Amino acid sequence: MIAMLPDAIGNHVFKVSVTDLAGQTTVQDLTFHYGQVTLETADLWQNTATLKIVPSATAASATLEYKRSTDDAWQQATVSDNGNGTFTAAIEPTWSSSTNEMGKTVYEPDYATGVFAGTTYDYRLKLDGTEKETGRFTTAKGDVIPNADMSEWSTVSRAGLSGSKDVPYPNKTGDSFWDCGNNGITTDLCSSTTDKFGAAAPAAKLQSKNMFVLAAGNLFTGSFNYASMTGTVKFGSKYTYTARPKALRVKYHATTGDIDIVRSQNPHLQLLMPVPWHRVDLQLIMVARDRKRRRAVGVQLTPVFVQLCAAGAKCHPNYLHFDGIIPESRRIPRIIPPLLMV
């Protein structure tokens, strides 16, 4: 019925009135959309989409432009003729390459092209050079990393120096995405807290502790198993991405103290962070206090390169390398700070 209307393309609003046996009436709008363009597929990892075009009248050619609803500039989709009176529009991102400080080639998409998670796009269709339809579609939201907000904790039995005991576990019951090393020895290394951000935003509390050795507060994706003064650790948990991530964002609060334990005189600090994407613009600042000079010393760790390794290669695959050198005038003993690896 809608297709037979003179101006069929667009939204059509019907008012539906319902009256119950008590004589109470409710009126609601019911909207139907009739269009010549339908979103068929959206691959949010490849950032591609296909739209099917079914003209309401015979057309020799079709063009389709699209843009993010917040943008002004339109992008051109690639339209192919299916040979049966319909067309297919393909949307793909444009990639650019650059060389980083280590001479490695890195790639980055133009976010104005292609389709990305949780984004609304406008499109306009032209048939035989005349604009025939405008519309809008929204892609699905991106992935949610399990317990990334640290809101769900449980306990797990872990071996320690004097037998097994229940220790804090940064996963809801039945899950095993995050873990902490050496929590069976002392539960202070990693625990849940609401002290800094409130009950509505619980967080993981990481703190280093001096036992018979200096143990670092730690939290990572993967697993840790302790057995008789030895342990095995597996960094990284399998995770199926359905959308390409754009960035890593971490909210943190740090309390620093005097350096009173020295393990080495090496002023060089290096941090390895596994990343599932090709480029991350991120800097880390580590702050310690020089015990002799009683003043804060900042060490900036800057991303050096992302190392992508072939199978069997002797290197850290998909790891982002951070390096920092403490200036000669500020050389201090190395400490082991709390470490977050995701």
Written description of the protein model:
This protein is an all-beta fold and 342 residues long. It is 0% helix and 46% strand. The strands form nine sheets. A four-stranded antiparallel β-sheet has the order 3-4-8-7, with no helix packed on it. A four-stranded antiparallel β-sheet has the order 6-5-11-12, with no helix packed on it. It is elongated, with a radius of gyration of 28 Å. The protein has strands at residues 10-19, 25-34, 37-43, 48-53, 62-68, 75-76, 78-81, 87-91, 95-99, 105-109, 120-127, 130-138, 154-160, 163-169, 178-179, 190-193, 203-206, 209-210, 214-215, 218-227, 230-235, 268-274, 284-290, 295-307, 319-325, 339-341.
List the keywords:
elongated, four-stranded antiparallel β-sheet, 46% strand, 342 residues, mainly beta
Briefly note the structural class of the backbone.
Answer: mainly beta
Helix run count: 0
Order of helices and strands: EEEEEEEEEEEEEEEEEEEEEEEEEE
Rg, rounded, reads 28 Å
Give the oligomer, counting copies of the same chain as homo and different chains as hetero.
Answer: single chain
Gap between N and C termini? 54 Å
Would you identify the regions where 5 or more consecutive residues have pLDDT less than 50? 264-342
- The portion of residues forming beta strands comes to over 45%
